[in-house]
Write a structure and sequence with these properties.
By secondary structure, the chain is an alpha+beta fold. The chain is built from two helices and five strands, in the order E-E-E-H-E-E-H. The longest helix is centred in the C-terminal third of the chain and has 12 residues.
Amino acid sequence: MKLAKKRADMPWFLLLGEFMSSSATWTTKYSTVTLIVLSKSDNGDRSPYELYVTDYTKNDQVIPMRSNFWPSSLAETVLKIKTWDAALPVGKTMEQGRIYRMKNVRMIVGRSGGLEAKICERKFSEPLDDGGRTDFDAHLRKFLERKREE
């Protein structure tokens, strides 16, 4: 897998399927991602707040997750994102079934040995419109194409 160099004027977008857990093969550990919230998990007063998301790309480093909240065909595309610090209250307001863009998502290897992610900053978009025009947003357009194929 060859990744393009980051341009200073362009946010760094990666698909969840492009991340690998070996630091030797990682070009970057932080990324901007477009994804849909499938489920949320509140740990009460304990941090972090957990989001289960997908961008409809497979990643062999993710431990397949099964749930009643999404079809079993998505098991290998679901990523757990832990929201910490300033991102925690924003994560709690995100709506299940809505599409968001997140910046500075950091990929990590979780306790289970699989790929997970965390975000600590309030760098979330408002919910993105999945029914409107997408010609101005190539990342959203491609996301919606993958979603339709699922």
